[in-house]
Amino acid sequence: MKATLDIPDEVAREVQRRADRAGREFVEQIAELVKLALRVPDNAAAGGTVTAGPGTARQGALTVATDPATGLPIIHSPPDAPVHSMTVNELSALTEAALSEDDLERAGLSLRR
After folding, report:
1. pLDDT in the model for residue 26
2. How far is residue 83's CA from residue 101's CA, in Å, rounded to a whole number?
3. pTM for the full model?
4. Quick check: 16 and 28 in contact, CB under 8 A?
5. Which of 2, 67, 71, 81 could lock 77 by a disulfide, CB 3.0 to 4.6 Å apart?
6. Are strands 50-52 and 62-66 parallel, antiparallel or unpaired?
7. Is 50 helix (H, G, I), strand (E, B) or coil?
8. Please, which residues bridge with residue 65 across strands?
9. How far apart are CA 87 and CA 104, in angstroms?
10. From first to last of its 113 residues, what are the pLDDT tens digits of the chain?
11. Where are the beta strands (DSSP E) in 1-113?
């Protein structure tokens, strides 16, 4: 099915950035994001729980819930997820690397080609 969509510029830029990072075309990335959004139950926006299982970019069962007091997401990962065995320094280094990569991509200087 073909459709014409009006997408805000900032959203289109983010979709393109993600598509570039994943090695996909823009329309492929849009389709993937729509598929992911359709997996989210209707009650998730009202503080429900979302479970991402097989077929997602994640391994194992990952649950995302909303803290009723703060409204912030709470992410529960499987016990064998790498995050459980990482040190604070390793997590900080991973975060810094991801932020640096994002900054470079936004500046048009992506290290991935």
Report:
1. 93
2. 20
3. 0.42
4. no
5. 81
6. antiparallel
7. strand
8. 74
9. 26
10. 888 889 889 889 999 988 898 888 999 999 988 888 777 666 554 444 555 544 333 435 678 888 888 888 888 888 888 888 888 989 888 888 888 888 888 888 766 55
11. 50-52, 62-66, 73-76
AA letter at 3: A
Cα separation, 7 vs 30, in Å, equals 11
Instruction: List the end-to-end C-alpha distance of the chain, in Å, as a whole number.
Output: 30
The angle at the Cα of 30, spanning 52 to 91, to the nearest 5 degrees, equals 50
Rounded CA separation 47/49 (Å)? 7
The span from the CA of 52 to the CA of 35, in Å, is 12
Per-residue CA distances from 106 to 33, 34, 36, 96, 109 (Å): 20, 23, 24, 15, 7
